[in-house]
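Notebook entry, structure prediction.
Reason for the run: the old model in the group folder had no record of what sequence produced it. Starting over properly, with the input documented here first.
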Amino acid sequence: MAQAMWIERTYGERGKAHRLPLVVITGQPNVGKSVLFHRLTGRYVTVSNYPGTTVEITRGIMRHNGRSCTVIDSPGLYSLNPITEEERVARRILLYERPDLVLHVVDAKNLARMLPLTLQLIELGIPTILVLNMMDELERAGLQISIDALRQQLSIPVVPTVCLTGRGIPELKELIDEQLIQRDRSASLPARD
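New structure, fully documented this time:
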């Protein structure tokens, strides 16, 4: 029963059920994960406890360009070496729910403190987009980040956003869609001998 709660199913041309792509939002507490979740999913929201815990998990459906994906707003996470129950649940989601894509949301003005988790996600081979949130606060502080240089150094997509106002959200939605389409294409390629 608990397993069924985590699998969204849609039905294709011949009635065969398949799982919607899974996108997990992760990052430290208070970086704007929940605001981003609501920007991506709108009204398609359900909250439930992660099986076997009292930690609340928010799930919803993002619809964009005629495609749908399940989005999970995971609890705050500082590292893949968990200390709290919330961090253990966030880690379990990342390692065992098999996300198709992870959105690592960071506070842009505190990027150096938040990059270790980004590097851990990259090392695990989890497809990741780095979401530089609170860019307005960074700019008000007179600071800058070279998005292109960061993208090149990390070899992952990097998107600047201000989730509260919606700045950067359309570009992020397009990038999510592109990444999921690319992943679908890679998965459908025949194996070479």
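Summary: The helical segments are 33-41, 85-96, 111-124, 135-140, 147-154, 169-188.
The old model has been moved to the deprecated folder.
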